[in-house]
Amino acid sequence: MNTTTQRVPGIDRTDLQEHDLSVPGRIVIQNRVELGPAAPAFRHKHPGEEITYVLEYAIDGKPPKTYSAGEALMVPAETIHSVRNVGSGTAAELATYIVEKGKPFIELADPSVEPESPGDGGPHGYH
């Protein structure tokens, strides 16, 4: 499965793997996300837990905190959040999701709202 997708300018997601788990109705999805300095932050949620390891540079998270390379964070299921790159280069993370099978792994919190621009104080970015 190693496919790269760019659905939002400045954000590249490389799908690394997707597998059924021994827990009925759950799958694991893992991808690498790269956030350019101008990548927009937008509020979204996942139908399961997200475990993220920061590979390069720093990102802002929710609750508001800057995570640097080598740090990890966990976002509980259905928690609305966003992420943004706070560095001058491309930030990268390894994101692992344990989610409900058959549901989209990402859902915009408010599909009618445009993504936030990097400089407008928005919270944390795309996984």
Question: Could you walk me through the main structural features you see in this protein, from its secondary elements to its overall organization?
Answer:
Helix content is 0%, strand content 50%. It has 127 residues and is mostly beta strands. The chain has a single domain, classed as Sandwich (Jelly Rolls). The protein has a 6-stranded antiparallel beta sheet, with no helix packed on it.
Overall tally of domains? 1
- Quick one: biggest sheet? 6 strands, antiparallel
Number of helices, counting only DSSP H or I runs of 4 residues or more: 0
Radius of gyration: 14 Å
Q: What would you call the structural class?
A: mainly beta
Q: What is the first-to-last residue Cα distance?
A: 17 Å
The count of DSSP E runs of length 2 or more, i.e. the number of strands, is 11
Could you tell me the mean pLDDT?
A: 82
Amount of helix:
under 10%
Spatial strand arrangement across the major sheet: 1-2-3-10-5-8
The succession of helices and strands, N to C, reads EEEEEEEEEEE
Q: Determine the CATH superfamily.
A: Jelly Rolls
Strand content: over 45%
CATH topology: Jelly Rolls
CATH C-level label: Mainly Beta
Q: How would you describe the shape? A: globular
Per CATH, the architecture is Sandwich
